[in-house]
Specification:
heterodimer, A: 166 residues, mainly alpha, 6 helices, elongated, B: 424 residues, globular
Chain lengths: 166, 424
């Protein structure tokens, strides 16, 4: 179980640095265009690809640490038992979503892979490079949701929720 | 009937505490399955939402403000502003508002703004005899300038979901942002004058003004480059966010040498968490919006609105009331992503300008950010000021009134919002 937690956290850390790298690439792109009049062909496309992956792949880690934005006005007023029941229901819903997205999302990427579809842009990357991000990320999310379900049902302490967004 | 059932399911799931992103994506998916539509749309819809160059500005503006936050620029900025306005009546409060406004021009997030300025301003103001509840209220409200004065994460997302120009939205935010700053300053000065409980600060000499000003200069220059670059068309908002982020690294690592490796790692991690939490909701909202469109829910609602509400003014009033109620328990971005796709049709029917509506919406969700019991800015101020929620909540009411008054002003004088985007 720990291995999955570590994997989720590792890919989330990588996602953070991917956003960092996107910033460097795009700043370089602006510099190259203005000062050397030589825009790159890779900066925008690689940024988009990294952006898609980074956004979805970190979902599992946020679930593990209970850092997703959620409405706590009711659950905060419940006792320990009530909070546990609510978390189980919430995780079951997440599991339903994640499994369904993997089920219907995987064929999209496989299909592109088999037919060799490409983006038709300057770098002409294979389509499945981006399309695989959604099913793979939701697969990790589904596995993490199962782990969290087991933990919540077996009485492990609930993670502390804290809002991070704006 | 279907609309009522869907709303019940939506609020039931939200109140159970399912993460908002998964409520929207999951309910959307369920609606696709039940309605016999292709559920593949859920996966492809989420992917296509994120395949957006405009949205890349979200993590980069967050990185920029988190790097500045960890680099401690809040302290420098506050010291510099204080040297200029500290001796006015309510000078420290004025310095706080102005610092929030300047940092808002770097940051697209109200939480980062409240945290950055609050860390320095709260102890300073409390030491000078300002009542704690006033200080907390001022910081919670001042922080909301972060999402009104460009850049703004919420306006970027609004632009993406309504397909309006982010540039026009950024321009539209300037007028109301400055108006709000002016109101906060007037209120602070009046408060200090009439209560008379605040110790005055002595006027700073030119020496102090120059030394503190020099230290804050890189931050102000960076904000200036980013904002004017966007307005002058030197680069797109997304490129501006990349320039701003690299500029923030340069300012904190090279010029001020105030950012540690640990601080940088924290900035990267915090930005990632906020980005992912926000953008997954955007992706989920896309699935939900497509699904309810197939069920013809927005059409039903616009029909309901157009048969019952004839004037644009009444519509705006109703939306404002709904937002105030939802704001009691929901966070700003989720509210926007649920409401806007449903209301977009009605805007056209009633002839409301979508740019104006975006700014109106942002000020209303700002109110939501500071209405107890749920408001992210309240939590931030509570944590930074080591305060009780009761104290913070007591302090925000006058500022909430000021913000609602501002909404009234921009509703009566729409040019405050629309003049810049249509004349620049």
């Amino acid at each position: 179980m720990r291995i999955i937690d570590r994997l989720s956290d590792l890919v989330a850390t990588l996602a953070g640095w991917a956003f960092f790298a996107i910033g460097l690439m795009l700043a370089y792109e602006v510099g190259a265009r203005y000062f050397f009049n030589a825009p790159t062909i890779w900066a925008e496309e690689l940024s988009r690809l990294a952006f898609v992956w980074a956004t979805f792949i970190a979902a599992a880690s946020l679930l593990h640490h209970d850092k997703h934005i959620r409405v706590t006005v009711v659950t905060d007023r419940l006792g320990e038992g009530g909070q546990r029941v609510a978390r189980v229901l919430a995780l079951l819903f997440v599991l339903f979503l994640a499994v369904t997205v993997v089920w219907y999302g995987t064929p999209i990427a496989i299909n592109s892979l088999e037919r060799g579809r490409t983006t038709g842009t300057m770098m002409d990357l294979p389509n499945w490079w981006a399309q695989a991000a959604v099913p793979l990320s939701f697969l990790l999310l589904a596995v993490q949701a199962v782990l969290e379900l087991i933990r919540t049902l077996s009485g492990a302490p609930l993670p502390s929720h804290e809002e991070v967004a704006d | 009937m279907e609309t009522v059932l869907i709303l019940l399911a939506l609020f039931g799931l939200l109140l159970t505490g399912v993460p908002v992103a998964f409520v929207l994506a999951g309910l959307g998916l369920a609606l696709l399955l039940i309605g016999g539509f292709s559920p593949m749309m859920a996966a492809s819809g989420m992917l296509s939402t994120m395949d957006s160059f405009v949205l890349i500005a979200v993590p980069l503006f967050l990185l920029m403000s988190n790097v500045m936050l960890k680099g401690g620029v809040g302290r420098d900025l506050f010291a510099a502003v204080q040297a200029w306005v500290g001796h006015w009546p309510g000078g420290l409060a004025v310095a706080t508002v102005v610092s929030c406004a300047i940092f808002a021009a770097i940051s697209g997030s109200s939480v980062a703004t409240a945290a950055t300025i609050g860390t320095v301003a709260i102890p300073e103001m409390v030491n000078r005899g300002y009542p704690r509840h006033f200080v907390f209220g001022l910081l919670a409200a001042g922080g909301t300038l972060g999402i009104l004065i460009p850049p703004s994460i919420i306006l970027i997302v609004y632009g993406v979901i309504t397909e309006e120009s982010v540039l026009a939205l950024f321009e539209a935010g300037v007028g109301p942002g400055l108006l709000l700053v002016a109101f906060f300053i007037l209120y602070s000065m009046a408060y200090a004058h009439f209560t008379g409980i605040v110790q005055d600060t002595e006027k700073a000499d030119w020496q102090t003004r120059r030394s503190t000003g020099l230290r804050a200069l890189p931050t102000v220059v960076l904000a200036g480059v980013v904002i004017s670059g966007i307005y002058q068309g030197w680069f797109t908002p997304t490129e501006a966010s990349a320039i701003g982020f690299v500029g923030a690294l340069f300012v904190t690592l090279v010029v001020l040498r105030s950012l540690s490796w640990q601080g940088l790692k924290e900035a990267v991690r915090d930005s990632m968490k906020t980005t992912v939490a926000i953008l997954l909701i955007v992706a989920g909202a896309k699935v939900f919006a497509r699904a309810i469109a197939l069920w013809r829910i927005p059409q039903d609602i616009s029909e309901l609105i157009s048969t019952n509400i004839e004037s644009a003014g009444l519509f705006v009033l109703v939306v404002a009331l709904v937002l105030l109620i939802m704001g009691l328990f929901m966070e700003a971005l989720s509210m926007m992503l649920i409401m806007v796709p449903v209301l977009a049709g009605a805007l056209v029917v009633l002839g409301i300008d979508p740019i104006w509506f975006g700014i109106f919406f942002v000020i209303m969700v700002e109110c939501a950010l500071i209405t107890p019991p749920v408001g992210l800015n309240l939590y931030v101020i509570q944590a930074v000021g080591k305060a009780k929620m009761g104290e913070v909540a007591k302090g925000v009411w006058p500022f909430l009134a000021i913000m609602l008054f501002t909404v009234l002003v921009i509703t009566l004088f729409k040019d405050i919002v629309l003049w810049l985007p249509y004349n620049l």
